[in-house]
């Protein structure tokens, strides 16, 4: 029998919601008695009627899977690079490859994010505020990627990039860091106070409309 296609499965957003996505896929298939198709795979049956239902079930599951990754360009690109084709009819192969590619991409993302975090340098930023914003961004991205960044580790990364730009303050921060009293929040508060003492440069503006008149 034909199976209704409306299934409430969230769009995959990489590692951020992979667990929710897997639970939603499993629930949708469990309601229809189809979980074996992605858990173990279902071999082609012998009877004509059974084969027709088997093909319909596989197409139904593939439809759910493909619809859920249509906006995840990095995942689909990685899948195609692995030799996968959108015409693949076995939903288990598609499902397994989706999960594999998400994990692979997440590890790649974490490598880049960690590299950026450990190589931050205040001199490469327009202002201390922009340096702080980048630190917050990288810390949050690593959290979303599933990397268990300890507080002291994050503080150490930020301090490393401040050594040359703020040597006097850096010495005091290091002393607090060594005795365990410098938290992320405390460091960010100090940096915020310090940033307010930085000279504020006016933004560049385009040519005045009043210049060069007739």
TrEMBL record:
The source's domain of life comes to Eukaryota
Q: What is this protein called?
A: Uncharacterized protein
Identify the species of origin. Lasiosphaeris hirsuta
Q: What is the lineage of its organism?
A: Eukaryota, Fungi, Dikarya, Ascomycota, Pezizomycotina
